[in-house]
Design goal:
Elements (H helix, E strand, L loop, with lengths): L2 H12 L11 E3 L4 E9 L11 H19 L2 E11 L3 H18 L2 E9 L4 E9 L16 E5 L4 H10 L6 H7 L5 H10 L5 E4 L4 H12 L2 E4 L11 H6 L6 E5 L1 H5 L5 E7 L3 E4 L2 E2 L10
Parallel strand pairs: 3-4, 8-11
Antiparallel strand pairs: 1-2, 2-5, 3-5, 6-9, 6-10, 7-9, 8-10, 11-12
């Protein structure tokens, strides 16, 4: 068992009520509110070598919004905690980036904290409303469900490799710095489905996402590799590369047929594990502590 799983086991066994844990968002049914929190650390999640404060701010808020969209909720509020060797120019450019995302997604930053530290660290808590919609859960996939997606896979990983190769700008680098999100399809799914469904974003890669749904839902997920949307030709990036923030959803076939825009890439079957072209994938989940 890796460190992350050990830590999570301790948390589950220690806190008074672990029932809210298990998905990327906690669901407060009494308020119809989804809440998610995430941290980004310099030289772990981003590099000042490749991104300026404006770009860092935009991506930091986008990746948190992605969790809310994957829950089926509408993002409404956020708080931002910012630590680092900060100066007036950094704060000005950073919050210009935040403001651009506020306008784009019609959300409000309602607070946060500023502190000094040796490296830049950004911690965001984001809240979304699922009033009049049905939230997702990775435990909701069932035998016979369609596995579908919107977006593409491997582009962000390709962009990061291109940056390390000395390339300054291209399509993949833009996908890495400024990931595309899918609020309209998320809303359509959550307001249209008649049955429970599982939905996640591909923040840690396609296979990681499918493996988590398979484990929590106790289903076998069989994927046709020819149907996975991609532009890079690097197979490892397509299957395992993270930070694309595409949506993967497992849903009833009738629900799937009522939602335009989703691409079918596979099916849920009896059993367990993730299969690509009928071959089981041996996969070690992403470990944030390695």
């Amino acid at each position: 068992m890796n460190k992350e799983l050990k830590f999570l086991k301790i948390i589950y066994n220690t806190i008074k009520n672990p029932n809210y844990l298990g998905d990327d968002c906690a669901y407060l049914d009494e308020y119809k509110l989804a809440i998610s929190s995430d941290s980004l650390i310099e030289d772990v999640h981003f590099s000042m070598q490749f991104m300026n404060p404006y770009e860092i701010a935009r991506k930091s808020l986008l990746v948190n919004i992605s969790d809310i969209l994957a829950s089926g909720a509408k993002p409404i509020y956020a708080t931002i905690n910012l630590s680092g060797c900060l100066d007036e120019n950094f704060i000005s450019e950073f919050y210009k980036g935040i403001n651009s995302i506020e306008k784009e997604f019609n959300i409000k930053v309602i607070g946060g904290d500023l502190t000094k530290s040796e490296k830049l660290a950004i911690s965001i808590t984001i809240m979304g409303s699922y009033k009049n919609s049905t939230p997702s859960s990775r435990k909701n996939a069932k035998e016979g469900y369609i596995v579908a997606c919107i977006g593409e896979f491997g582009s962000s990983a390709q962009g990061l490799e291109d940056l390390f190769s000395g390339i300054k700008d291209n399509y993949f680098i833009n996908q890495h710095k400024n990931p595309k999100l899918y609020p309209k399809i998320s809303s359509l799914i959550s307001k249209t489905v008649k049955n429970p469904y599982a939905m996640m974003d591909s923040s840690d890669g396609l296979i990681d996402c499918l493996a988590q749904i398979s484990q929590k839902s106790n289903v076998k997920i069989d994927i046709d590799s020819n149907k996975i949307p991609h532009k890079t030709q690097n197979r490892d990036f397509i299957l395992y590369g993270g930070e694309d923030y595409s949506l993967i959803v497992c849903l009833n076939e009738k629900d799937f047929n009522n939602i335009e825009g989703l691409i079918k890439i596979g099916i849920c079957k009896k059993g367990r594990g993730v299969y690509i072209d009928n071959k089981k994938i041996k996969y070690k989940s992403f470990n944030h502590f390695e």
